[in-house]
Amino acid sequence: MEPLDTGLGVIELLTENPSICAIVVDQKGTVVSVNSTYLRVLQKSKEEVVGKYIGDVTPNTRTLVVLRTGKGVVGYDWSINGYNMIACALPLISNQTVVGCFAFSLFMDIWDAKDLVENLMFELNSYRNEVRNLYSAHYTFASIIGSSPKMQNVKFLAQQAALHSSTTVLITGESGTGKELFAHAIHNCSQRSRLPFVRVNCAAIPESLLEAELFGYVEGAYTGARKGGNLGKFELANGGTVFLDEIGEMPLSMQSKLLVVLQEKEFEKLGGSRPVRVNVRVTAATNCDLEAKVKQNGFREDLYYRLNVLRLEIPPLRERREDIPELVYHFIDKLNARLKTKVNEISTRAMQMLSNYHWPGNVRELENTLERAMILADMQGGNILEPSHLPLPHDNRNGTFPNGNAFQDGDAHRTLKTALEEFEKEYIANTLKNTGYDKEKAAKALGIDVSWLYKKLKKHNITARAN
Ligand SMILES: Nc1ncnc2c1ncn2[C@@H]1O[C@H](COP(=O)(O)OP(=O)(O)OP(=O)(O)O)[C@@H](O)[C@H]1O
Ligand SMILES: [Mg+2]
Predict the structure, then answer these.
(1) Shortest-distance atom of ligand 1 to CA 441
(2) CA 151, 319, 456, 248 torsion: positive or negative?
(3) pLDDT score recorded for residue 45
(4) CATH architecture of 323-460
(5) Is 141-315 in the same CATH topology as 10-111?
(6) Biological process GO annotation list (predicted)?
(7) Which helix (H) or strand (E) holds 241?
(8) Which residue's CA lies nearest to atom 31 of ligand 1?
(9) Nearest of 365, 329, 310 to residue 177 by alpha carbon
(10) Which of 43, 83, 150, 241 is 20 to 30 Å from the Cα of 53, by its Cα?
(11) 360 lines ligand 1 (CB under 6 A)
């Protein structure tokens, strides 16, 4: 090797480096050469080390293992005479035979660096666990109850989708049918299950923030942008799944950007100049009629086709009433555990009522109805669900208000108008609750316009949010 202008060869410069201890032993473990830094650490002269058996010089040496196995040991802790170091011992091989071993260790400040790295790794791992928890899918196909032929069909199709881990899936269905459950289950059952599942609620993020939320931004991208920039959901989900919930609400400007990402599999961060490549599966869900939205120019046709590669249509509950008993028993168990109630039965009449109702809020409404019924039954000291616990509107025929209360004596004197108004108020309040206080969904479920719903809320003085 060429000497540098110090007059020393590169090898000498390396081996005489004051931060490195270096030693070479031959096949038998006899020290062939040692650098002066190592001699200083050993507090020995060259004559006391060279030509001696390494096991006698440094009893804890790893060089003998390397000579025996022919395999290098890299990055182990090495402490000698009070010095803490990180060491490597590598075999010297000639004609496929181990002819010796070269060991070197870096020390002093490096140890601090190791502490630092260890601390950082600890921190990184805690964050990793937190992110994994935050961005993980909680449901599997086993959590999706329903063995009606319709549900079996959708589940089968969803399981097929899970197997094709890069296929885009579009999940449609009325509010509360279980679209989110399916998105989770598909991720959990796919090859991507160990990687993140990141949900983005396209309806909940203001248009101005959606791009940064999806694709991230670089430092200084805009006033108020976080130092060091920010990862977008697509980057966070790399290797896993991005679940674009309420995709029908995505603003048109973002739709064009999303289309490019789906086609090119890359994007640019806000304010960034380099494309970022990601490998994610996109699952999208909506309860709105996307085809109609396309016709009204509210949704890009090309994006619709790009998303609609594999379509899962979750049937409304009223079209698979045979699932209701199974769901009821499932929720009774689930809610007993959560509410600490002891409901263990449901009367035939109550089950009939649940099976006959048309469930505009679907499974979510069924779950909420049961929750309320179970609390009521429990408050009355009972453990059997009866029709009187069920706040179902059509139950009026049987002498109860939608809130589940039986008619009082004085009710007979009530005018039809008052009774209807009371019914309307309860019905709207229930629907709002069952649609998660989402006015658009509630209006849709009620079959009325949102502006009309607002008028009714005002008229009946109904609080339009969860307390
Ligand atoms: N098949 C099912 N088995 C068990 N629970 C279900 C099922 N379907 C829905 N649920 C329950 O109903 C609730 C609503 O489901 P989910 O959030 O998936 O509905 P969604 O279709 O996404 O509704 P939205 O359009 O309003 O967002 C869930 O919390 C879940 O507990
Ligand atoms: Mg949903």
Answers:
(1) 26
(2) positive
(3) 92
(4) Orthogonal Bundle (1.10)
(5) no
(6) regulation of DNA-templated transcription
(7) strand 241-245
(8) 364
(9) 365
(10) 83
(11) no
10-111 belongs to CATH 3.30.450.20: yes
Q: What would the CATH number be for the domain defined by 141-315?
A: 3.40.50.300
What are the extents of the domains in the chain? 10-111, 141-315, 323-460
| CA proximity to 193, closest of 136, 130, 237 | 136
Task: Please work out whether the CB of residue 324 comes within 6 Å of at least one atom of ligand 1.
Answer: no
Lowest mean pLDDT among 7-11, 281-285, 448-452: 7-11
13: region left, alpha or beta (phi > 0 left; psi from -120 to 50 alpha): alpha
Query: Which tokens is 395 given?
Result: 């139950």
CB 175 within 8 A of CB 288: no
Please check whether residue 149 is in contact with residue 321, taking contact to mean a CB–CB distance below 8 angstroms.
no
Query: Measured between alpha carbons, how far is 344 from 279 in angstroms, rounded to an integer?
Result: 47
Phi, psi of 274 (to 5 degrees): -105, 140
Predicted confidence (pLDDT) per residue in 296-326, tens digit: 999 999 999 999 999 999 999 999 999 999 9
Query: Would you say how long the chain is, in residues?
Result: 467
